[in-house]
Amino acid sequence: MKKLKVTTADLQPGMYVAQLDRPWLGTPFQLHGFQIDRESELAQLRNCCRHVYVDVSRSNISDSELDRLLAGRRQGP
């Protein structure tokens, strides 16, 4: 499993959220790990987290989007 740290601003439907930047308890998410399917899930994640860890192998995103995320990691802050 390859996990990427992704800011919530960069999240999009199809990404599999494997870990939050905080404990799952106390968030609106009942499952510990889920694929983003709806805009409401994006809004909830952005409301309670600054970043999450996305499991690339379980995500349904294009290769070009994955390349964009990886390029952002290489460039750093």
How would you portray this structure in words?
It is a single chain. With 77 residues, the chain is of the alpha+beta class. It has 2 helices and 4 strands. 13% of the residues are buried. The mean pLDDT is 88.
- Fraction of residues in β-strands: 15-25%
**Beta strand count:** 4
The termini sit apart by 24 Å
Approximate helicity band? 25-40%
Q: Structural class, from secondary structure content?
A: alpha+beta
- Our Rg estimate from Cα atoms comes to 12 Å
Main beta sheet = 4 strands, antiparallel
Order of helices and strands: EEEHEH
* Mean pLDDT rating: 88
- Helices, by number, come to 2
Coarse morphology:
globular
Strand line-up of the largest beta sheet = 1-4-2-3
- Note poorly predicted spans: none
Which tags fit this structure?
77 residues; alpha+beta; 4 strands; 30% helix
Topology diagram in text:
Layout: E1 3-7, E2 16-20, E3 34-35, H1 39-48, E4 51-55, H2 63-75
Antiparallel strand pairs: 1-4, 2-3, 2-4
